[in-house]
Amino acid sequence: MTLDTMRMRYFLEIARAGSLTRAAKELHVAQSALSLHLRSLEDDMGTSLFDRLPRGVTLTEAGKILFSHCQSIMRAIEQAEHATKDVGVNPTGDVIIGIIFSLFPTLGISILEDCKKRFPGIRVMMCEGDSKRLRESLENQTHDIVIMPQDIPAPTAQVLFEESMYVIGPAGYFPSDSATIHPREVLQLPLIVPPEKHEIWFTINSFSEREGIQPNIVWRIEGLAATKHAIRCNLGFSLLTLSAISDGMEKEQYSFAKISNGDVNRVIVLDMATSHPATRAMKEVHQLILENWPRYMEHSFK
């Protein structure tokens, strides 16, 4: 058998460390022995897994494929161990929660605090991401639970709430908080969009097809924080939800208008990975979020 758990663990640590020297220290093995393990694995695989650089190593394309599979396998083994040990005792283990960028500031901390209070034996990691990355994270098993937009909720998803999309611009551009804007006008604004297609792209494209106008896209910027900074610097406008600028003081740095005749409410769902068996820890955290969601909404969107 080419792969076993030791080989996968060594391979993953080298990839994460980006250096045989650092990986050997983390694994508490001799660097020469680790180098032999890697060479043997590459020989068995019939391909190079790392590019050797003057100051470390980086994964080749073949290495990236193996990394993804090994990561999933090792997580599944760990979850199997925890699931077995959890029977009849307090839940333990790791749970990775993915949450859409715009919701973390208002909801993420409350969820983490509740998990720590109720389940001290569960180690919860929370990761921000856009809708595209969060969907992929469920498929490749890097996240256990996600809170994300979903146009057509999957059978496993629980709808949490809906929120309207707004055009967000520099402070003072829109006259009041009750301002509205037609999709045709949206397309004529200098728009800031993400470089990868996700919900903003889909919304703008739907406006373009309906109105027969090409959008005026001037910047492609990835990340919520970078997009908001660009808006504050008067570089353009973007489509966001008010939860993305929910803090009262932050709202003063922008102006916003609700899109009229746009039908651009987005549905936020809670979903759980189905590609591997759910551990007790995953089920408990999932249920905790559902039970406390009304309180999160009440405190976060006053």
SSE blueprint:
Elements: H1 5-17, H2 20-27, H3 31-45, E1 50-53, E2 56-59, H4 61-86, E3 93-100, H5 104-118, E4 122-129, H6 131-139, E5 145-149, E6 158-163, E7 165-170, E8 180-181, H7 183-188, E9 191-193, H8 199-211, E10 217-220, H9 224-232, E11 238-241, H10 248-251, E12 254-259, E13 266-272, H11 280-300
Parallel strand pairs: 3-4, 3-5, 8-12, 9-10
Antiparallel strand pairs: 1-2, 5-13, 6-13, 7-11, 7-12
Helix pairs in contact: 1-2, 1-4, 5-11
Question: Which terms summarize this structure?
Answer:
302 residues; alpha/beta; D-Maltodextrin-Binding Protein, domain 2; 5-stranded mixed beta sheet; 4-stranded mixed beta sheet; 11 helices; globular
Q: Reading side by side through the largest sheet, how are the strands ordered?
A: 4-3-5-13-6
CATH-derived architecture of the largest domain:
3-Layer(aba) Sandwich
Largest sheet geometry: 5 strands, mixed
- Head-to-tail CA distance between termini: 58 Å
Order of SSEs: HHHEEHEHEHEEEEHEHEHEHEEH
Report Rg.
Answer: 23 Å
Class of the largest domain, according to the CATH hierarchy? Alpha Beta
Total helical elements = 11
CATH fold-level name of the largest domain: D-Maltodextrin-Binding Protein, domain 2
